[in-house]
From TrEMBL:
Residues 150-180, 406-445 are annotated as: Disordered. Gene3D superfamilies: 1.10.30.50. Pfam families: DUF222, HNH. Signal peptide: none annotated. Residues 327-379 form the HNH nuclease domain. This is DUF222 domain-containing protein. Residues 164-180, 429-445 have a biased composition (Low complexity).
Length: 445
């Protein structure tokens, strides 16, 4: 038995702590699969002691779970989920993933062929192996919309709470003026420690829009294990969400210009310093910027190379190096469909083009050297051991050895389109899907 499983956690190294987290999560996954197999056998035998009205009632009592959870586990154990069962048995997905997939496929249209059903399950299981259950649920929702083909049933069509779309904006002059010029305030200042502090308030319509942006962007990161939730506080998560919104706005094509062009920061740094491990550089407003942050910012910035003489005079100020063009951004949106980090479902509008080979190291602003990253994973790429590569037009992320000693390249499947039905259309007769899968032991073989 390895030391990572026998020693107390406080005696483990940082790397061994991560190894134990990953190992124990896989153990939880396989243990849950073993429990489902047992539940299926109990149900098939009818091995319920006298005094219990059903298998679900028996499970709720002896496992100390709610009746709803007992029914859910029974459904997972007896349903037609061979691919889900296999992934769970191998420890690749969690109990929450299995619950989301089982709940969704239980409500799948009856006109689906068995092949359609299998393709849909495979799509969700593949995504579950790299994404959190919330992302899998959103993918399942998109698949359901695709199946239903009914825009009226798409989520998000209802008005925001507190807003009546049919309500009048008021008839008096005061309300008309308020509608034409709503009351909004924003105050800000720089602190001595270089922080940007702000306060303010906005009208209800703008506040609702901000809330709708913040809620999905400030969602907690998926937990590595049930006992390791996102360490960020709600305020910190909302701060990261604001940073993502500002990052998107800064890249808007119609952003007002300053001195004839969009936001510009002039940084004086020689190429050797930028390529090296320098800790800090100075901007034109005399503030200090970590060199690692500068390298990340320059991935999508307008760069002005300046040649300086020995006395510091400017000998030549070159033209700004071209960043990704609008045509390239559109091509990336088609190719990558959004952030390329495994399991991330941020759409193209929330991403920036990242140079796979940094421009300072000779990387060109070409499609075969660009990859789409959202603000959060762009930062992760620059400040962690993750790396990326492009192979046959597909972006792969290579995890640090701490997370995967083999460093297997991972491909994001969160943006994959819903699988096209393989059989007849929904309006024609179709072979009904199987009511139950083979016994779990056979499905896992």
């Amino acid at each position: 038995m390895s030391t990572t499983t026998t020693l107390p956690a406080w005696q483990l190294s940082d790397q061994d702590l991560t190894t134990r987290l990953l190992t124990t999560q896989r153990q939880q996954n396989t243990a849950y699969a073993a429990q489902l197999e047992t539940i299926r056998e109990v149900e098939s035998r009818g091995a319920i002691p006298e005094g219990y009205s059903s298998t679900a009632a028996y499970l709720a009592t002896i496992l100390h779970v709610t009746p709803r959870e007992a029914r859910a586990r029974l459904a997972q154990a007896t349903g037609s989920l061979p691919l889900t069962w296999k992934a769970l048995t191998e420890g690749e997905i969690t109990a929450q993933h299995a619950a989301v997939i089982a709940e969704f496929l239980a409500d799948a249209p009856r006109w689906l062929t068995p092949e359609d059903y299998t393709v849909a399950e495979d799509t969700l299981v593949t995504l579950a192996a790299q994404a959190n259950p919330g992302t899998v649920r959103r993918a399942a929702t998109r698949l359901k919309i695709y199946w239903d083909n009914d825009p009226a049933e798409m989520p998000g069509s209802s008005p925001a709470p507190g807003l009546d779309p049919d309500a009048s904006s008021g008839t008096d002059a005061g309300s008309d003026a308020a509608s034409a010029r709503p009351w909004r305030e924003f105050r800000w200042h720089w602190t001595r420690t270089g922080r940007f502090r702000f306060t303010g308030n906005v009208d209800q319509e703008t506040g609702t829009l901000i809330e709708q942006l913040l809620v999905p962007l400030a969602a907690p990161d998926p937990a590595t294990t049930p006992d390791t939730p996102d360490p960020r506080t709600p305020a910190e998560r909302h701060g990261d969400a604001i940073a993502a919104i500002v990052d998107l706005a800064a890249r808007a094509p119609d952003l007002p210009s300053k001195a004839g062009e969009r936001a510009v920061a002039t940084v004086t740094v020689d190429l050797e310093t930028l390529q090296s491990t320098a800790k800090a550089v100075f901007t034109d407003d005399e503030s200090v910027l970590p060199a690692s942050h500068l390298r990340r910012i320059l991935c999508d910035a307008r760069v002005y190379p300046a040649v300086l003489g020995t006395e510091g005079q400017v000998l030549d100020l070159g033209r700004s190096a071209r960043t990704a063009t609008n045509a390239q951004r559109r091509a990336l949106a088609i190719r990558d469909r959004g952030c390329t980090f495994p399991g991330c479902d941020r759409s193209p509008k929330w991403t920036t083009p990242h140079h796979i080979v940094h421009w300072a190291n000779g990387g060109a602003t070409d499609l075969d050297n660009l990859a789409s990253c959202c603000e959060r994973h762009h930062r992760l790429l620059h400040h962690s051991g993750w790396q990326i590569l492009l192979r046959d037009g597909v972006v792969y992320w290579i995890p640090p050895s701490l997370l995967d000693p083999e460093q297997k390249p991972l491909r994001n499947t969160a943006h994959n389109p819903p699988p096209t039905p393989l059989g007849h259309s929904r309006w024609q007769a179709a072979t009904p899907r199987p009511a139950a899968a083979p016994h779990p032991s056979a499905a896992a073989s």
